[in-house]
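Final report, Chapter 2: Outcomes

The project's central promise was a pipeline that accepts a single protein chain and returns its three-dimensional structure in a standardized token representation, suitable for archiving and comparison. That pipeline is now operational. To close this chapter, we reproduce one record exactly as it appears in the project archive, with the input sequence first and the structure output second.
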Amino acid sequence: MTNTDWANKDFYKVLGVDKDASAADIKKAYRKLARANHPDSNPGDKAAEERFKAIAEAYDVIGDEEKRPKYDEMRTLFAGGGFGPFGGGPGGTTFDVNDLFRGGAPGGGAGAGGLGDLFGGMFGGGAQQQRRRPARRGADIETTTTIGFTEAVEGVTVSLRLASDAPCPQCRGTGAKAGSMPRVCPECEGVGMRAASVGGAFTMNETCPSCRGRGMIVEDPCPACNGSGRGLSDRTIQARIPAGVRDGQRIKLRGKGAKGEHGGPPGDLYVVVKVAPHPVFGRSGDNLTVKVPVTFDEAALGAEIKVPTLLGAPVTVKVPAGTPSGRTFRVRGRGANRKDGTPGDLLVTVDVQVPAALSDEARAAVEAYRSATAGPDPRSRLFGGS
């Protein structure tokens, strides 16, 4: 919208006040009209919605102590005919009044800076174009899901119900309380960005600290969203948990976070995976672990034992004679999947069992074994012995 458009609007008439009305009278008139024409009070009434927008626009100008005198001066200049007729001048000469705001005199001359220097900063950037509010990336979301041990090894698709950021349903994303409207940020003029000096001669854009990039200032915040304009919206998505995921691992799903603002991209979703324990198997990196009990005679004399696997048939593990308790054997290819898709290994740890009670025959056999294997005290070196 050009400054010419602003000059042709009578904001005093829109609010129903005199040109010399006080700031208090203007504010009172605005509140009364805004309350009567607010969309919440007139659901489905498009005419009331348009009147509400016009009322807010008028108050943003003549309700501002800095904009109002500039607006009055601009209206006076145009109303006084100081620039001649807008359509054509004497002798059929025509000119575009916007030349005045572009800094040039009619006909393309340099002029004295143009009215754009006087009014350009009043409505957010001059006559050439109305500045658009910057696109903002949506927020990242984090959630937690719990899956079974076998699901973590094989991979699984889970349903996630998310409470994500969305426009507040009560204020419809404006952030303002019912009956009020946010106003254009005076520092960035609604752009959401401001120029900051870097090294004196150079400038760069940064987020406006006054409105935090929104371009609007909320003076009477919505009680539901505390003026943020954002609320919570439940939604359900399907997320694929890859095979081999570990307990506590954080998985990133691009573009599944909160929606962006003003055409900005959505944020990302981070899923923290909790893996339920298994009654038999455990994890060590990409390897599965299992502890297998063996009898004393199997450990002493040697044996072949059957060992369960998580996803397939049991395997046979050869336990050599004289195997101590706690020794680990590796069964290749029976573990969890690695990142490259290849399987890890199954680590089998033997646990030599000591019977809690012995029959008379078993006791006699153990005593005979003790006599047959009598030798130096195996603990003597702990006391300095040889």
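Archive annotation: The radius of gyration is 40 Å.
This record, like all others produced under the grant, will remain available to the consortium after the project formally closes.
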